[in-house]
Specification:
Blueprint: H1 2-11, E1 15-20, E2 23-28, H2 31-40, E3 45-47, H3 49-59, H4 68-78, H5 84-87, H6 91-104, E4 110-111, E5 117-118, E6 122-123, H7 124-141, H8 147-159, H9 174-191, H10 200-226, H11 236-243, H12 249-278, H13 280-294, H14 307-312, H15 314-326, E7 332-337, E8 341-347, E9 353-357, E10 362-366, H16 367-370, H17 374-377, H18 388-391, H19 412-429, E11 430-435, E12 446-448, E13 452-454, E14 465-470, H20 472-478
Parallel strand pairs: 2-10
Antiparallel strand pairs: 1-2, 3-7, 4-5, 6-14, 7-10, 8-9, 11-14, 12-13
Helix pairs in contact: 3-9, 6-7, 6-8, 7-12, 9-10, 10-12, 12-13, 12-15, 12-19
């Protein structure tokens, strides 16, 4: 993403036009323009065409690409799903965390000169999407896909030498379909008007696998309801069916929720540890605060983590905010003008006057650039420093990790709670971390698709490869299994 910042620097302004595949697009990273696009001139713009074209075959009429009344009605249906009551229930996370822990605690640990044990080499970022999709499917449809358990089986086979690399094992499961469909969507996003020509047959197979799981979950919910069993606090599936005239829309809305609930949350988890590996001071400070606030990894550890205690742990919140600032989960987004209109700034010889926008113009806005502007964040804007959030709160529209205005992310508190829970549990279980791909430079290694995730200098390497030092409580509990 460095080239994006360099391009803005070369232009000498934060709003400019660019020709792309025969069309002229406006690019902006101005807070006032982003505010206009998302809030004050909300009715002048709709979801950008490239995003709709790249995702429509997969998630159909989902809230994430809908506009107008369809979007409004879907948002009303989904709001109770992210109520304070539902967001505050963290019990669903612990079962999946225990599976994640087993993936990390495989035989073959290393012992350092002090006698402390370290895990084998592991890619943290590769486990997080499994965790988030397992949690999302259980919460949204009452049936977890249990991709972490599948991953655990593969890790065990890899550790035993039965297979050399889990990524070489052919798959046609839910995780494969999910990953491949997003890869296809990413390519389609870049192809723009030619997007429908790419991956049609393969995407159809991905959709078949994904929708089979969703429809099976719907059927299971029906059976449970018929037997008087309550599977979820908010019966989202039944609410959708009561309010969607066309029942084929139900799995589309669920697929959209799962897409948003997996990758964006997993990306934030990955970037938190990506940056803590590169900033040991931050890791040590957060470790100390987590241990003081939430205690050790004993049997009561999960009970001490609540929605309220996570929210009140200021340094934890600062670390997550700083990771969101440094690496916006969605670094670019777009809108399309539905009428002739104006944006507040970007016009005139010096770029400070209002700018005319013709109907049909695509406007791309970059929160990645916005969040790294030194004139807004200071000369250390390119440094990971959570303490900045204690010194000064950002001005309005300078920090937009979850969008803004009427379409602000409805699940942001759910995402932050899930990420916070995983961070705390990992720091309760492990009190040291060593990155295995960090070369000491300040360069960011990223993998860019619709969602940005941590990358690595080695293209064949999985992201955030590291070793973790077992906390004494974990050493004592699992010692016999780690030989």
């Amino acid at each position: 993403m460095d080239f994006v910042l360099e391009r803005f620097d070369a232009m000498g302004r934060y709003t400019w036009y660019m020709k792309l595949l025969g069309s002229t697009n406006l690019i902006t990273a101005e807070p006032a323009n982003i505010q206009a696009l998302l809030a004050t001139q909300f009715e002048d713009f709709k979801t950008g065409a490239p995003k709709v074209m790249s995702l429509k075959q997969m998630i159909g009429r989902s809230i994430f690409i809908a506009d107008g009344k369809a979007w409004h009605d879907a948002r009303v249906l989904m709001r109770p799903l992210f109520s304070r009551e539902n967001v505050s229930d963290l019990t669903v996370f612990e079962d999946h965390f225990q599976t994640l822990l087993k993936c990390l605690l495989q035989p073959g640990t290393e012992v350092d000169e002090t006698g402390r044990k370290w895990t084998k080499r592991a890619s943290l970022a590769s486990f997080f999407p499994c965790f988030t999709i397992d949690s999302a499917t259980e919460i949204f449809v009452g049936k977890s896909v249990h991709s972490l358990k599948t991953r655990l089986e593969e890790v065990i086979r890899e550790s035993s030498g039965e297979i050399k690399d889990v990524d070489t094992v052919p798959k046609r499961d839910f995780a494969w379909a999910f990953n491949r469909s997003l890869q296809i969507a990413n390519v389609r996003l870049r192809l723009r008007s030619l997007s429908s020509l790419y991956g049609r047959k393969e995407l159809k197979e991905c959709k078949r696998v994904l929708y089979k799981f969703i429809n099976d979950a719907i059927h299971a919910a029906d059976l449970a309801k018929g037997q008087g069993q309550v599977r979820v606090k908010y019966d989202f599936i039944n609410t959708l069916r009561q309010n969607c005239p066309d029942h084929t829309e139900v799995p589309e809305q669920i697929a959209g929720l799962l897409a948003a609930g997996r990758d964006s949350t997993a990306s934030l988890m990955g970037f938190v540890f990506y940056h803590m590996i590169r900033n040991p001071r931050v890791f040590e400070k957060l470790l100390r605060i987590v241990r003081e606030t939430f205690g050790p990894a004993d049997d009561d550890a999960p009970k001490r983590i609540t929605f309220e205690t996570l929210r009140s742990c200021k340094y934890l919140q600062n670390v997550m905010n700083e990771a969101l600032r440094m690496n916006s989960v969605v670094p670019f987004n777009s809108k399309c003008a539905v009428r002739d209109t104006m944006l507040p700034t970007g016009g005139g010889a010096d770029g400070t006057k209002p700018i005319y926008i013709r109907k049909g113009t695509e406007i791309a806005y970059s929160t990645y650039v916005l969040h790294r502007r030194k004139d807004l964040w200071g000369e250390d804007a390119d440094q990971f420093r959570p303490e900045r959030w204690e010194e000064k709160r950002p001005a309005n529209w300078h920090f937009q990790p979850f969008s803004g205005g009427p379409r602000i992310c409805i699940g942001q508190q759910f995402a932050l709670t899930e990420v916070g829970y995983v961070i705390v549990r990992l720091l309760q279980c492990f009190d040291g971390i060593e990155g295995l791909d960090y070369d000491g430079t300040r360069r960011d290694w990223l993998r860019f698709s619709i969602i940005v995730t941590p990358g690595t200098p080695n293209p064949k390497e999985k992201a955030v490869p590291c070793k973790l030092r077992l906390a004494p409580e974990i050493m004592e509990k699992y010692e016999s299994k780690l030989e």
